[in-house]
């Protein structure tokens, strides 16, 4: 891989008994960046952050109008559930190829292209007049969303290298902040009685303006494959084992996150027995603390180190979920869900940051491997919880997910102590 700004050294590693060393970036910042003003580097960081924000705003905009589209197309809950599955299917289909595309064409080009297509697909969702059209639209929405996700996180890794400190959590914080913004904009559009199509069109225009004002400041990098031609791996060859371990950690975190997204409201309604307006308290407290934790996470990681922060985060996930199980009352559960939000806040950004610095796999491909394993947790967690809850109760299912936090702390400890 080579940067306009960074030139990694060629280092051959025969045996490495400390897997964490696989994620230490070894490079030399060229003079043009070494002497660059802090204001210019901050402009790069702002530009990359705006792409994270644009992606989060687009997704939240779609989510805010799902009930209206369901009503307009006369869909049942079962119909909607089946149609919504088209979005992760699009993500899964492109996953084996997104890293290769980012490596070949450059993350800055793929990011601009995929985000433009993402907002075009968003607008088209508002034009759907049948279940089939909506399913096809969501499939493409998921496809370009995953491509943009790999590209933007690759940009995040590059920017982190330029700053020589951890800043990935703040980028993911921008995505979370965009989620709040999208929900608020959605409420405003509903108050104005705007159709989903006009709503999506307005937001799409805003995102395209963000792209126009910020694409020039993306880190322009072209990756070289880090293995010799004679040693190149096949498309579905066995990936780096260290990346798989990071993916499993991400899997546990995203499974916990997915359960909170989909089941926190149900838990407050059916288990906590919260009165009407307070049903959303659990979800809201979780989201606020997750976003706050991502903005504060970089400072904590730079001060205490990735491993310690990830271990504490795993413990917080478990303590939070077990507290909600054994103390199913409004105040304890609200505090518990806040703990879970803080716990999941920094794990995935940290895992992505470490994966992108693997010296044997280009960042785009490394992120594809890790995000593919991690995303399975987000995809499988909520439906698995539903089946467990049907058989043993919702509290038991939350306790089951609580074990994942302990597993995160254990796996990070094993990686750290492998020497």
Walk me through the structure.
By secondary structure, the protein is mostly helical. Helices cover 75% and strands 1% of the residues. The protein contains 16 helices and two strands. It has helices at residues 31-34, 38-64, 66-72, 77-84, 86-105, 107-125, 131-163, 168-191, 196-214, 241-270, 281-304, 306-326, 330-345, 347-355, 363-392, 394-417, and strands at residues 2-3, 221-222. Strands 1-2 form a two-stranded antiparallel ribbon. α11 packs antiparallel against α12 (306-326). Residues 1-31 and 227-233 have low confidence and may be disordered.
Write down how many β-strands occur, each being a DSSP E stretch of 2 or more residues: 2
Structural class assignment: mainly alpha
Query: What is the CA-CA span between the terminal residues?
Result: 28 Å
Large-scale geometry: globular
The level of helicity is over 70%
Main sheet makeup? 2 strands, antiparallel
- What is the CA-atom radius of gyration, in angstroms? 21 Å
Q: Please tally the helical runs, counting DSSP H or I stretches of 4 or more residues.
A: 16
Write the layout of secondary structure elements.
Layout lengths: L1 E2 L27 H4 L3 H27 L1 H7 L4 H8 L1 H20 L1 H19 L5 H33 L4 H24 L4 H19 L6 E2 L18 H30 L10 H24 L1 H21 L3 H16 L1 H9 L7 H30 L1 H24 L2
Antiparallel strand pairs: 1-2
Helix pairs in contact: 2-6, 2-7, 2-8, 2-9, 5-6, 5-7, 5-15, 6-7, 6-9, 7-15, 8-11, 8-14, 10-11, 10-13, 10-14, 10-15, 10-16, 11-12, 11-13, 12-13, 12-16, 14-15, 15-16
């Amino acid at each position: 891989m080579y940067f306009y700004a960074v030139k990694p050294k060629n280092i051959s590693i025969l045996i490495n008994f400390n897997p964490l060393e696989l994620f230490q970036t070894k490079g030399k910042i060229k003079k043009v960046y070494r002497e660059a003003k802090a204001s210019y580097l901050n402009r790069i960081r702002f530009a990359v952050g705006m792409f994270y924000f644009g992606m989060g705003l687009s997704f939240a905009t779609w989510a805010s109008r799902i009930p209206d589209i369901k009503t307009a197309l006369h869909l049942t809950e079962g119909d909607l559930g089946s149609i919504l599955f088209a979005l992760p299917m699009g993500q899964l289909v492109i996953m084996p190829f997104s890293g290769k595309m980012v490596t070949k064409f450059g993350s800055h080009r793929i990011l601009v292209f995929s985000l433009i297509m993402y907002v075009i697909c968003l607008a088209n969702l508002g034009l759907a007049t049948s279940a089939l059209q909506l399913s096809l639209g969501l499939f493409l929405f998921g496809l370009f969303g995953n491509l943009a996700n790999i590209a933007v996180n690759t940009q995040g890794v590059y920017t982190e290298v330029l700053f020589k400190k951890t800043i990935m959590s703040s980028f993911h914080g921008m995505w979370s902040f965009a989620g709040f913004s999208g929900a608020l904009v959605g409420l405003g559009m509903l108050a104005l009685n705007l159709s989903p199509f006009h709503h999506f069109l307005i937001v799409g225009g805003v995102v395209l303006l963000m792209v126009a004002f910020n694409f020039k400041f993306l880190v322009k990098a072209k990756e070289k494959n880090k293995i010799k031609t004679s040693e190149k791996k096949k498309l579905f060859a066995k990936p780096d084992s260290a990346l798989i371990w990071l993916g499993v950690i991400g899997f546990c975190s995203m499974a916990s996150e997915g359960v909170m997204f989909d089941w926190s409201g149900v838990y407050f309604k059916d288990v906590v027995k919260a009165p009407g307006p307070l049903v959303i308290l659990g979800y809201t407290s979780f989201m606020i603390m997750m976003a706050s934790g991502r903005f504060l996470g970089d400072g904590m990681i730079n001060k205490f180190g990735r491993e310690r922060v990830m271990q504490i985060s795993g413990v917080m996930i478990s303590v939070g979920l077990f507290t909600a199980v054994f103390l199913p009352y409004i105040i304890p559960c609200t505090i518990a869900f806040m703990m879970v939000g803080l716990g999941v806040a920094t794990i995935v950004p940290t895992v992505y940051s470490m994966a992108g610095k693997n010296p044997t796999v280009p960042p785009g491909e490394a992120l594809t491997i890790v995000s593919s394993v991690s995303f399975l947790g987000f995809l499988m967690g909520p439906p698995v919880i539903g089946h467990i809850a049907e058989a043993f109760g919702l509290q038991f299912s939350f306790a089951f997910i609580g074990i994942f936090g302990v597993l995160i702390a254990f796996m990070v400890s094993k990686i750290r102590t492998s020497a």
